[in-house]
Specification:
This protein is α+β, with helices and mostly antiparallel strands and about 325 residues long. Helices cover about 35% and strands about 30% of the residues. Strands 1, 2, 3, 4, 5, 6, 7, 8, 9, 10, 11, 12 and 13 form a 13-stranded mixed sheet that branches.
Amino acid sequence: MTVPFHSRHFADADAPAVAALVSRLYPDRAVSATELLNFDRDQQNAGSRHARFLALTPGEELAGFAAYSQSLGQFHPRRFRLELIVAPEWRQQGIGAALYAWAETQLLALDVLVLRSDVSEADEAAQRFARQRGFAEERRTWVSSLDVTHFDDAPYAGLEARLLAGGLQLLSAADLARQHPDDWHARMHTLFSEVRLDVPRTDPATPISLEQYREWILDDPGFLPQAFVLAQTLGGELVGQSDLYRSQNSRDLFIGLTGVKRAWRGLGLATALKLRGVQYAQAQGVTRIWTDNESSNAPMLRVNERLGFVREPARLSMVRHWPDL
């Protein structure tokens, strides 16, 4: 029997229920209500078009939601992302179809050109749902996790000493802030702005200002200054980074951006940076860290595999194009 449900726009008071649903179904994307509202704030402050729509049971239980947004790091006014989630216990009730119909109507009014959405490689029903609505697979992102409780760093003994002998030292963002209290954030932004350009992506990267970097990264509630590891030359130039973040809804830690300037690659820096992250996680009693990498990013995938990261089902980036009339 089909259960009747009703729909309405998201309100801030709905954030705990939405965050709980995302975290329950996708632990690697765990998010808290505060983090969800921070995302909305960042979208609004950046001038992005963003909205969320809820499907509720007669008892006001959240059955699912759809949300569209625009990528702040590769912004295009007619390119959007869609997140559509229906709780397993409420699937096959027409909820997903109704939520998608709402999103499509909204996006057509915004003159959408490209719409992307991620589905799990293991979720055949979600893939079928997307294909029936004109989506096709565009690329794959591998989600990989590492159980740090059993990690053996013996094979990497002496790596940091070799790097130091070559004029490179590792430090945390907290260390950098103590060394350069007046401009540590600007130094990190300069490094970030360069290494992010080599990250595989669907659309060209658009600039992220220092103010946006502070708001989106340094002021993020999951930012961990001691776990944001940097590589610095003895002359003070930052040449690499690897950062760990924590969601308020998960004990696991997530590796965000690991990147090394081109002139300093091939020395083992990415490995050394990630090792520091593993050590931080172990010291904090964390059992698992995870990351994701686009399938074409072979160098970083090799680093992760050597460290013992285990691949989980991939995320499929599905894309739908509208004719540009």
